[in-house]
């Protein structure tokens, strides 16, 4: 992956700048956000992303691969929150 | 992955909003649920998912990739439950 | 992955309902079982699985991907058993 | 992955039935063994494996995927040996 | 992967030679840097990378795979920083 | 993956037979070495590797997959070195 023309500083990569969330549900939402924003950092052109949306969103293999990214991000967030153990 | 039109808040991403389960079997079921719901968050259109079902469910490579997602989710859930050690 | 018609409750996802095994060899066998059963949960139709068997079993890329699932499951089981350290 | 006709009990999945090795080099060799044997458990037919050998061994994508399996197995073995720290 | 003609010593693989960052946002940026630089180490020819850029940046599957690399690097960086827990 | 004719004992899989390095940069270099050597163990024929080099080095998907291997190896090496925390 070559960086785009310049690392797109403007994309906030970690909303809230923390991995700590109150609940697993919030942690899961954060995992999705990290994954979405990764793509936006790598491909900052919204039009390119819009062209890609119908392609991957209707491709089971891509949906599964995207779920793998979410699962990996969630593993990190869950560990960060000590698995929201009481 | 660009988010769908709006992050589908209505999909509950973590049923029960906890990673803690009584047994490995329940933990495994939760891992499947997290994986299923990831796809539903990324592609909220049930019709699109229904079209995809026969494609991936009869494609060994997709079944294996889906199993990889479950394995990754389960690793997180198992750690959360301290591997259900007595 | 949309769930099959209904999550196939009948498939026992974690044989013995424990991740604890006496030896690494047993732990490895359990990792294979978890991986096999994942596919059976996602695709409960035995005929579909039988059709897929000769496809993936003679496809090096699929065999390697399946080995990746086993490696990921085994990582979880090994951690659960504290790596069977004496 | 449907299991082959019967889980091939005869394949020893973890040579020596331990993850503990004296050195990283031995641990790395064990990681390769676990990966090789995974394929042999999933596809016990030597002739099928021999047919696949020239395919994957000359396919960079398959070689890279196989390296990923080794890296994942090694992560488990390294953790088991506490990274061979003095 | 055979190494390029010679491991390109000149590419700094870990900017700042540390995994420790002040915040998750900085940690995330480092994860992107590690991923970008991996590609530059494996393929040191800028022209080849420039040719590849429009290919992967408009290919949802490649964008997702790249996000997987970032997620894996971030998991390491987050653990290094003890998840930036207060 | 069936092993090559004989596991190529001659390839040193872990240069220096240790995962411990002085700095993250050295740890990163070791991660690349482990990944390169994995391919050399699986495919010991230099001519085959040379044929593969231009294929994967100009294929973004393969470069990304190779980066994933490096990221996984680095995660192990970073943990081995306790993330080079002061």
Topology:
The structure is a homohexamer of 86-residue chains.
Chain A: H1 24-42, H2 46-57, H3 60-80
Organism (chains A, B, C, D, E, F): Cellulomonas chengniuliangii
Protein name (chains A, B, C, D, E, F): Hexameric tyrosine-coordinated heme protein
What does this structure look like?
Chain A has 86 residues and is mainly α. The first copy, chain A, has one domain (20-84). Chain A has 3 helices and no strands. Chain A has helices at 24-42, 46-57, 60-80. In chain A, α1 crosses α3. The longest helix of chain A has 21 residues, at 60-80. The first copy, chain A, is flat, with a radius of gyration of 14 Å. The first copy, chain A, starts with 23 loop residues before the first helix and ends in a 6-residue tail after the last helix. The mean pLDDT of chain A is 92. Chains in contact: A-B, A-E, B-C, C-D, D-F, E-F. The A-E interface holds A 1-4, 7, 12-14, 17-20, 34-35, 38-39, 41-43, 45, 48, 51-53, 55-56, 59, 61-62, 65-66, 68-69, 72-73, 75-76, 79-81 and E 23-25, 27-29, 32-33, 35-36, 39-40, 46, 49-50, 52-53, 56-61, 63-72, 74-75, 78-79, 83-85.
């Amino acid at each position: 992956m070559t960086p785009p023309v310049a690392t797109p500083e403007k994309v906030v990569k970690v909303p809230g700048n923390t991995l700590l969330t109150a609940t697993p549900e919030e942690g899961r939402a954060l995992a999705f956000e990290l994954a979405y924003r990764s793509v936006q950092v790598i491909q900052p052109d919204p039009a390119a992303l819009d062209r890609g949306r119908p392609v991957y969103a209707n491709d089971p293999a891509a949906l599964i691969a995207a779920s793998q990214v979410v699962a990996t991000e969630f593993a990190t967030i869950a560990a960060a929150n000590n698995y929201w153990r009481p």
